[in-house]
Every structure is written in C-alpha cells, then in structure tokens.
Amino acid sequence: MRTTILLIFVCLTGKSFSQEFLNLGFEFELRGSETPKKWWYTTSSGYIFKWDGNEKHESNRSLKIISNNPKENQSGVFTASFPVAYAIGRKIELRGHVKTESINNGYAGLWWKVDGQDGVLAFDNMENNGLKGTNEWQEVSLMMSVDEKAKEITFGGLLLGNGVAWFDNFKILIDGKTFNDLQPRSTELTTDELAWLKKNVYPLSTYDPSTKSDVDLEVFGSLIGDAQVVALGEVTHGSSEIFQMKHRLLRYLAEKKDFEIFSMEANMPEAYKLNDYTMHGKGNPTELIKGMHFWTWSTQEVLNMVKWMKLHNATTQKIQFTGFDIQYYNLSVEELEKAFKDHNTILEDLTSIKRILDKTSAKHQGSRMGAVSQDDKDTIVEKLEHVRNVIEKLGLTKDRTAWLYQNIRVIEQYIDKTVFSWDKFMAENLLWIKSQNQDSKIAIWAHNAHVQRTMHGMGNYLSDSLTNDYVAVGFAFSRGTYTAMGENGLTTYQAQVPYNGTFEKFFESIDVPIFIIDLRRIKEEKPMHAKWLLEKMDFRQVGSMKMKSEFYETDISGDYDLILYINNSSGSKLLD
Asked: Name one Pfam family in it (predicted).
C-alpha cells in the first residue's frame, strides 16, 4: 500500500505535538482483516503476524511476530508511515516496548528510515543492539536527525531469525516532545453537522445518461468552471451507477462545455483504435472494447457510452476517444512495424524488441511491472533509438510522425514501469495528448487512486503541470454490490457496509441519494461543522479485486476537488 505524506505546518503546544492518528498501540483494526490500521506487513511465508489479546504491555493487545521456518537472512517486518513535515530538521526518537521468546540466529527490535528524492538519508534497525533470546517487556529506542531534504519517513518493528516477539506501546518524540497519537472518530455526525452537510451539498436528479434534462448538471458545470482537464474517478472498477454517471457527465461536458477529448485508463494504442469507430464508424465496438485487454471496461455501460460517442460525432461537434495507460507493448510494436514495412533493418530491430518482451512476459507470467532485466532494457533502448533516428526520413505527416514517436515512448515506459513510475508515465501521456490538441478540453476516466492530487498519483503530476486547469472528481457509494475478481472468480460481490468513522456513513446519513460536494470551498472557508471533512477518515478504496477490508484512512479534501456521491451501487454488466 502506498503511503500518504501530508504537508502541514508543525505547531508546538505545551510539551506535545498533536494532529495525527498513527495507531501506535495497535489497538484499532482495519475492518474485516487481522491487520492494525495504519500498519502493513512484509508478506513472507517465513513469519506469521498476529494480534495477541493475552500478552500485552498495556491496553487490549499487542502485535506478535512468530517465525515459521524462515530462510537465512529473511525477516518479518511491519511498517507505518510518519508525516514527514513534523520532523524535517528535527531530532526524532522512536520508543517501543518489546518482549521476546527463544530468539536465535537473529534479534527483535525497532527500525526507522528517512528517504530523500535520491534515496535513503538515514536508517537504523537496531542491528547491533536488538533483543536476543528471551526477555520480558522492556522499552527500547532509537534516535536520529531528520535531514531538511527528507521526503518520506517509515518506521516499525522486525524479527530476524527464529523465535517470537511481541510489540506494544510505541511512542514518538520530536525534539524531546511527545507526538500525540490521536484516536479515530467513531461517533455519528451531530445534529449541527448533519444540518450543515445537507445544506451544503448539491443534489443531482439521476445518474441515467439517457435522461432528457441536464438542468441539475448546471451546478457541475459551474463548479468545474473553465478547467481544461476534468478527471472523473471511480471508487471501484465495477459499479454500474458510477459508470453511468460518468457517461452522463461526459455527455454534458461534450455538449455544453465543449470538451473534445475523452481519455480512459486503457492502453494507449488500443484506445486509439476505438477512436476509429467513434469518429469514423470503423470496426466492431464490442470487439474493440475487448481489445483494450481489461474486463473492467468490457461492460455494457462502456459500450453504451462508446455508441453514444459515435452518434454524437455525426453532428458538428466531435469528441475523440483516447487512452493513456502503458500496460502492454504489442500494438505499439505493430504500429511501428506498419510504418517500416519496407525497411528490413528496422523491422529486424522491432522483431528483436518484441522477442525480448515476449520472453520476459512469458517468464514472469504476464507481469507488467518492472520485470524487464537491465541488460534487456539496454538492448531495447539502443534499438529504439535506432528506430527513432530514422522516423523523420519516412516523410509522413506531422501527426503520424508524432504518433510513431509516442509509440516508441510507450514501449520505453513499459520497460521502465514500476509501482512508483506508473502514474508519472500516465500523466506524461495525458500531457502529450493535450500537447497534440492544445485548444481542446479533456475528460479523463480513471480510478480514484489515479486522479487524486496526492500520493504521487497521476493527478498529482497533472495538477502540478496544469494547476487550476485540473479538476479531480472523486466518486463514492455507500451500499450495494460491484463487479470484481475474488474468491468466486469474476462476478458481483457485496460491498462492505460503511460504519461510523467512514465518510460514506456520514454521507448516507443525510438521505440525499445523489449529490456533489465542493471540498475546495470547505478548505477555504473551514466551517465549524465541516471540520470532519478536512480530517482523515476511512473511505472506500477498491480496484479490480474484491477485498475483505474496503475502507482505508484517506484525506479526501487533499485528494479531490469534488466528491460525487451515489448512495447505492450495483455490479457493472459484463459483455458476453
């Protein structure tokens, strides 16, 4: 799970800091799981992580690590993130109570790491003073200075070798002052908070894209203003109502706000193939949608939207279908092969590139995340440079030449793609689309995690480049079902019911089935009864997989400009 860095001003009051919930005592659980909130484990068959309600230093339970025939130099590690802005330029100390039993060939202890833009700035894992053998509860600590260039801080506990270790009652001190570990909210909204919320949302009449009137969407048009890029998120990849609402919003943006580009979280050249249908009626829309590889888009809701786009493009207004993802390389290679069909030397280079990538894909069972070796990368980059250097000699149109260069870039992105670079590359591709259509407005369709303005998401890079020309719309629902991959395969699953302390529980409490809320105005005005909207609380975050725990602590006011809430969800309808 990616960590969140909240940029804040540090304020010292008395002898302590305040502001954050870190779950330093491991008391609060991630609903539906055996994992403490705010913490995650290094997955390893060599260690088992458990809560222990019998053995604890204080409160109700501790976190326990049990060795399970670990391999040499294997370790069990649990991790949390610390908000770096509190610690920059200061001395920071991590304390924790640890108990051990029969630890040999290793030790138990705490660890702390400070990362900068170019790598690790400081690290300590108690390698020389960790606990060995059997020990009753004792407090251990480590301390370090945090460099001004720090970008991220992570910390936690570990067990190396065989044995059992318990961890409890962590504490953090900054320049000797205790950092207060706040408790998450678990109460309902007050009467005043409910009244404020109901008064300050913008109700919408329907999510149905076939509705004749769009009067209710005028408020949406007003809220996005003159933004050039509007990103429409989704909280799962399989909610029919959210998909239909995005279709409805796209129609409004195209017909009333002069948006001329639609761009989807789909592989770039495959999405452009679908544009041949929406603009010129070429091809079978169902097969072209399936050709974008992911079941998430192979739905009746997306097909209905694509068919509408074709009808819309029969008028004087036009809207292009594009994509920006980089999870496949085949069609980019084919695009280049078509251009160089009469150039044997270049074709040999392209055949070699595809052979290397096919081999890597087969070896890693289709993995598309950082699987290409450095030697293979060097070979591919060299051959792509050869291809790039002769494109101008083809004498093609400016647009066709730019498209060939972009397909080379997609292959380069594919071989360099990691969980950290993925969103950056998608943002790069969207900005390329914008550069090719400089006077056009773009509507984006992607997951909430990609459109959000924080956590190094695609929206983070886009908002840095586009500033006020970028609007991020997060989507949410409370109850119902959604389509996902899970233990029963690809089918419809019941959504986890929201609870007090989730944004969705509070949203549904005002009994307005569909609405928009403007988080930018709340951040600016900071109304007394909307304070909870500016805090971190649990928010549903599901991708294409059914998860036991669907809610994670989220700063929605930092992530999104607007939230579009729909009370009930049903599973998207998969194409046959």
From this structure: Erythro_esteras
